[in-house]
Amino acid sequence: MRKLVYFVASTLDGFIAAPDGTFDFLPLTPDLAPHLVAEWPQALPTFAHAQLGVDSPPSGRFDTVLMGRGSYEPGLKLGVTSPYAHLEQYVFSRSLPPADYPDVHVVDGDPVALVRELKTRPGRDIWLCGGGQLAGQLLDEIDELVVKLNPVVVGSGIKLVDSGFDPRRLTLTSALPFDAGVVVLSYTRNG
């Protein structure tokens, strides 16, 4: 069965974006970029593949990406309506008209039901790109959490997981530090 993998950058205090949705304080550091190209190429935007030396189409573990409206919005501001054209793209939004975005599946329904259905289809794993509210809704469906933990504290913003208080214990499966201070931490769900 396919896995849902939440692969995301975060601050030390658990935020994935500023209150306005920007994330430029979580830069792609020169020492992390080669790792992402080698190990996570499908999690890089299609328009950046040539610049980063990513094969087209990239190989790897994902063939599907899920995004909340806030995660999809930065690309829209740049005129990019299909940020991960190499993947099957789902955007959860109640306000985007699907007909205006033919390169992505705009979903206004239950994300849990869709993820459960996607997990039964043949294919590679499913990448949860963000955001925090969507991760909160899908928390019970996330099989693996991979956090690019950045050495910065911001105080407020969009949470890594935005849901009610409900502690979950995860199992650390790897920790990979980089010279610029980023640590890529991989966890699996217990049970």
Automatic annotation (TrEMBL):
SUPFAM superfamilies: Dihydrofolate reductase-like
One Pfam family it belongs to: RibD_C
GO BP annotations, alphabetical order: riboflavin biosynthetic process
GO molecular function: 5-amino-6-(5-phosphoribosylamino)uracil reductase activity
Bacterial bifunctional deaminase-reductase C-terminal domain span: 106-184
Protein name in UniProt: Dihydrofolate reductase
Organism expressing this protein natively: Micromonospora marina
